[in-house]
Amino acid sequence: MAQSKNHIVMHIPHDSLVIPDEHRADFMLSDEALEKEKLLMTDMHTADLYQYEGAARIVFPVSRLMLDPERFSDDSQEVMAERGMGVLYTVTSQLKEMRKPIVGTKRNAILNQYYYPHHESLSAAVKNSLSLYDKALVVDCHSFPAYPLPYEMAENNDIRAEICIGTDIFHTPDKVRTGLEMFFKDKGYSVAVDNPFAGALTPMEHYRTEKRVKAVMFEIRRDIYMDENTGKKHDRYNSVKTDISEAIGYLEDITG
User: Fold this and answer.
1) Residue 68 has what DSSP assignment?
2) Environment class of residue 107 by beta-carbon count within 10 Å: exposed (0-12), middle (13-18) or buried (19+)?
3) Distance between CA 67 and CA 144 in Å, rounded?
4) Phi, psi at 52, each rounded to 5°
5) What is the mean pLDDT of residues 10-31?
6) Can you give the pLDDT at residue 104?
7) Strand order in the sheet with 136-144
8) pLDDT in tens, 150-206
């Protein structure tokens, strides 16, 4: 693990487009349909969009269609598993069949290869920050479509705010929530808190117990930095990237 230079830990779980060749046959979609689903569900470009000098970075290496590291590993604990979107998705964003359920030794092998090492890396980064700085701020880095996808089961199909800030009642201080909201509003963005997505990821060993670990989720509406139909960056990309970096710098200052 590279030495961090501040107490920021950036978690980037949904950037990858990679589905390993040995697992491609598990998916019932054509190549064209699978690529379309990746475009709909991937937080495109977030590994590049979210940059902050000196921060620890934990980037999940494969597509969330392969495995979603932000789900509980046990489907009985995961509310999204009821929709076929637990840690190993079986349906698409349209709630259509995508993959047969993966169970038994194969399921365990996939979790052991991808899920547990990822969370161990995140936990290690947070522990390292606590050791070096006596504090850690986990920034959970996401993007989302302008309009809800069917799997979200949204109450309406209206366009969403450009920035969504996800919070946790224990790990997100009021000054982080309100400060970040005002930061982005001052930059001219429309902002919502915990809508359409709520929460802020924290390693389980620190969850609701370690007050030195703070957390917040950034959700950036995709159409403000890319063409959602093609996945290509557009002319606002660099300004959005700069604003995100400045926002993380602001958080470093107010949680320092």
Assistant:
1) -
2) middle
3) 18
4) -155, 120
5) 98
6) 98
7) 56-59, 8-12, 136-144, 213-221, 163-166, 191-193
8) 999 998 899 999 999 999 999 999 999 999 999 999 999 999 999 999 999 999 999
**Domain ranges for the chain:** 8-254
pLDDT at 155: 87
Residue 2 pLDDT exceeds 80: no
CA distances from 114 to 84, 86, 110, 119, 217 (A): 19, 15, 6, 9, 22
3-state helix, strand, coil in the chain (%, to 5): 40, 15, 45
* Rounded distance between C-alpha atoms, residue 218 and residue 142, angstroms: 6
Q: Which fold has domain 8-254?
A: Aminopeptidase (3.40.630)
Classify 43 in phi/psi space as left (phi over 0), alpha (psi -120 to 50) or beta: beta
The closest alpha carbon to 88, from 112, 119, 104, 111, belongs to 111
